């Protein structure tokens, strides 16, 4: 209210508002640590106030944090006794149900990963898992090519840390002259700085187990459904079928 009043000339204010304006300006000015300023600022205390506040914000001391000071250690880097498990959890468990052995905690299933090497390694360690199975575990390979949503992405030893969303397509694992190919539905690929890659897929099938005739039949059926779909739900389901079977056909023919 005082700011609005200060912007109005006295000629447009009643006598009571003029007095109130002066009181507000005096009150605000008295709460500010006035510093030497330009003579013109004496006629505009509100502008002086904002200038002083801005000056305090700009001169406020700041602390610079480097990436090294704010980096949190990975869970696999934390020193812990996997055999003992979580001692606090075990102690609390025994207080409640002393006659039953406590269940294992996640840390007991985790294996510490080696630190980031100083030189470029020659192999890439890959873990390729599904919700119900593990296709590759701690397997050293030369390269992995995954179907990322941004396009086919090759992962070599020493790759920068990356998280990539996967789409239906061909995943190939290269080890020398041996190439294993899988068709995956979707998932994520996590590439770590220590030449480890974790690939998590919703569904995966070895490419040599897919029948090309069934793929062509499914593509034809879903294409027909898409052209005759009458609702948005039917169109969406048919489009998904077309996309998946098109990706299957490309993986088989490519």
Q: Can you describe this structure?
A:
A hairpin with a 4-residue loop joins strand 8 and strand 9. This protein has 254 residues and is an alpha+beta fold. It starts with a helix and ends with a helix. Helix content is 35%, strand content 23%. The strands form two sheets. The chain has a five-stranded mixed β-sheet with strand order 2-1-9-8-5, with no helix packed on it. It has a five-stranded antiparallel β-sheet with strand order 4-3-6-7-10. The chain contains seven helices and ten strands. Among the domains are: 84 residues, Sandwich (ATP Synthase, domain 1), CATH 2.60.15.10; 42 residues, no CATH class. Belongs to the ATPase epsilon chain family. It is found in: Mitochondrion inner membrane. This is ATP synthase subunit delta', mitochondrial. It comes from Cynara cardunculus var. scolymus (Globe artichoke).
Label this structure with key terms.
254 residues; alpha+beta; ATP Synthase, domain 1; five-stranded mixed sheet; 35% helix; disordered N terminus
Distance between the termini: 73 Å
Helix content: 25-40%
Sequence of strands across the biggest β-sheet = 2-1-9-8-5
Radius of gyration: 33 Å
User: Low-confidence spans: pLDDT under 50, at least 5 residues?
Assistant: 1-5
CATH topology of the domain at 124-207: ATP Synthase, domain 1
Mean of the pLDDT scores? 78
Shape: extended
User: What's the SSE pattern?
Assistant: HHHHHEEEEEEEEEEHH
Strand tally is 10
Number of helices: 7
Q: How does the helix and strand content classify structurally?
A: alpha+beta
Name of the level-1 CATH class of the domain at 124-207: Mainly Beta
Can you summarize the main beta sheet? 5 strands, mixed
| Strand content bin | 15-25%
CATH architecture name of the domain at 124-207: Sandwich
């Amino acid at each position: 209210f005082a700011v609005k009043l200060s912007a109005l000339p006295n000629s447009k204010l009643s006598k009571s508002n003029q007095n109130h304006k002066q009181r507000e300006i005096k009150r605000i000015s008295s709460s500010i640590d006035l510093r030497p300023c330009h003579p013109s600022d004496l006629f505009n205390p509100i502008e002086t106030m904002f200038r002083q506040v801005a000056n305090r914000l700009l001169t406020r001391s700041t602390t610079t944090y480097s990436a090294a000071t704010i980096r949190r250690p990975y869970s696999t880097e934390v020193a812990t006794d996997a055999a003992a498990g979580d001692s606090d959890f075990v102690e609390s468990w025994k207080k409640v149900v002393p006659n039953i052995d406590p269940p294992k905690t996640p840390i007991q299933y985790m294996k510490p990963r080696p630190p980031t090497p100083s030189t470029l390694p020659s192999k890439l360690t890959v873990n390729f898992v599904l919700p119900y199975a593990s296709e590759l575990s701690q397997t050293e390979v030369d390269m992995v090519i995954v179907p990322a949503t941004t396009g086919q992405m090759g992962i070599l030893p020493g790759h920068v840390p990356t998280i990539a969303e996967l789409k239906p397509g061909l995943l190939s694992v290269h080890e020398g002259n041996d190439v294993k190919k899988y068709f995956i539905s979707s998932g994520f690929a996590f590439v770590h700085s220590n030449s480890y890659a974790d690939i998590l897929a919703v569904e995966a099938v070895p490419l040599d187990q897919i029948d090309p005739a069934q793929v062509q039949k499914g593509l034809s059926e879903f294409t027909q459904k898409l052209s005759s779909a009458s609702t948005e739900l039917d169109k969406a389901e048919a489009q998904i079928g077309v996309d998946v079977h098109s990706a299957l056909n490309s993986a088989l023919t490519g």
